[in-house]
Specification:
Elements: E1 15-16, H1 19-22, H2 27-42, H3 44-47, H4 54-69, E2 76-79, H5 82-90, E3 100-104, H6 109-122, E4 125-129, H7 138-148, E5 153-159, H8 172-180, E6 184-189, H9 200-203, E7 207-211, E8 223-227, H10 261-267, H11 275-278, H12 280-289, H13 292-314, E9 329-334, H14 339-350, E10 352-353, E11 356-359, E12 362-368, H15 375-393
Parallel strand pairs: 1-10, 3-4, 3-5, 5-6, 6-7
Antiparallel strand pairs: 2-8, 7-8, 9-12, 11-12
Helix pairs in contact: 5-6, 13-15, 14-15
GO molecular function: transaminase activity
Keywords: Aminotransferase, Pyridoxal phosphate, Transferase
Protein name: Aminotransferase class V-fold PLP-dependent enzyme
Length: 396
């Protein structure tokens, strides 16, 4: 596998195996980010005036991103992160007491809190279904979801790629069935863009949010929200500012700055630095320049090989078949131990940055592999685990 570590700014003394949390930005992309920031600081008034360039630059990023996502530029809006985007959706839905939000036991903790907050304010309730493990068949997942639908289900909230378990959920049939029943579909795609192929128009979910700072490798603070055109008028900004218009929900209304009310209302929310979002085209170009599909395939092989080596050592089964495992991110069950101690030992003794945590009745080490990682680093991880795990598991 070609190593591209020279393109990244990561500390050379740390074995960085946690791309999945916040990503890592390549040096040329980061330099483009700084160029935008310098342009902002050189003339802030001109830069932040939508009529003097900003609105067009924001659209340029939407156009570049939309091509990757299989949708139209006016169906997406650039935001700071997927959690923020999904909060916009969750707090825009007109939920009533007793309405059910159906979700799974694999969801991201911050979004579990988001829905708990919404339920506290609306009287809606969360209903959680367990996804059978190991996940080896699409019907396992879809049947579990469909069995959870009731006549009170108003929202289906799913991760496309899960955070804790690093599974790719086959959401297509569940989304289609929810549409037939008049159930809103809200998809957390935080780990998906740049990780697996996406065609949002074909998926036809009502709401879909994704991060660009993870697998697309744009700077932190770049993400998008996709909303089906028929539902864009129902979206309410969390912050009401210059981009909002009181006529936003009337058919045919133009936005304040010439875009749709959906875009202007969410993009133009007070003073903020939009440089991360404006750098998305450069991140996409970096991927194209370095044949990132080929790089990603090599990363997938390295991730799967590493997980197989850990399984051979621990004797513990995988959480899914390869079909439903995130290509470049694998959650590897290890013998039960204190995950905080394991994480500390891996970092302090071996300088390995990797997440370790408990999920349900599993202790998990989640490895992410990106173009800057090497086989030598994976050897280092396997060696560290073989040395530390017998010591820690003996204490439990």
């Amino acid at each position: 596998m070609q190593n591209l570590d020279a393109f990244f700014l990561l500390r050379p003394d740390v074995t960085f195996l946690n791309h999945g949390s916040f990503g890592a930005c390549p040096r040329p992309v980061f330099e483009e980010y700084q160029r935008w920031q310098l342009q902002l600081e050189s003339q802030p008034v001109a830069f932040l005036d939508p009529a003097r360039g900003l609105s067009g630059w924001m659209r340029d990023a939407r156009v570049a991103m939309a091509g990757m996502l299989g949708t139209a530029p006016d169906n997406i809006v650039g935001l700071t992160n997927a959690t923020y985007a999904l909060n916009i959706v969750a707090q825009s839905l007109d939920l009533k007491p007793g309405d059910e939000i159906l979700t799974t036991d694999h969801e991201y903790a911050a979004l579990e809190k988001t829905w708990a907050y919404v339920c506290r304010n609306t009287g809606a309730v969360i209903k959680t279904v367990a996804v059978p493990l190991p996940l080896t068949d699409e019907a396992q997942f879809t049947d579990a979801i469909l069995a959870g639908f009731t006549d009170k289900t108003r929202v289906l909230f799913l991760s496309h790629i899960t955070s804790a378990t690093a599974l790719v959920f086959p959401i297509e049939r569940a989304v289609a069935e929810a549409r037939k029943r008049g159930i809103y579909t809200v998809i957390d795609g935080a780990h998906t863009p740049g990780h697996i192929p996406l065609n949002l128009d074909a998926l036809d979910a009502d709401f879909y949010a994704g991060n660009c700072h993870k697998w697309i490798m744009a700077p932190k603070g770049s993400a998008f929200l996709h909303v089906r055109p028929a539902l864009q008028a129902m979206i309410n900004p969390l912050v009401i500012s210059h981009g909002w218009t009181e006529d936003a929900k009337l058919p045919g209304t133009k936005g304040v700055f010439g875009n749709t009310p959906f875009i202007d209302g969410l993009e133009m929310q007070g003073t903020r630095d939009p440089s991360a979002w404006l750098t998305v085209p450069a991140a996409l170009q970096f991927r194209a320049d370095h044949d990132w599909d080929k790089v990603a395939k090599a990363c997938q092989r390295l991730a799967q090989d590493t997980a197989a080596r850990v399984r051979a050592f621990t004797g513990l089964p995988a959480l899914s078949s390869a079909t439903f495992c995130a290509p470049q991110m694998v959650s590897m069950p290890v013998p039960r131990c204190d995950p905080a101690q394991l994480k500390t030992r891996l970092y302090d003794d071996y300088q390995i940055e990797i997440p370790c945590f408990d999920w349900q009745d599993h202790t998990i080490v989640r490895v992410s592999v990106q173009g800057y990682n090497t086989e030598t680093q994976m050897d280092h991880l396997v060696t560290a685990l073989t040395e530390i795990l017998p010591q820690l598991s003996a204490k439990t």
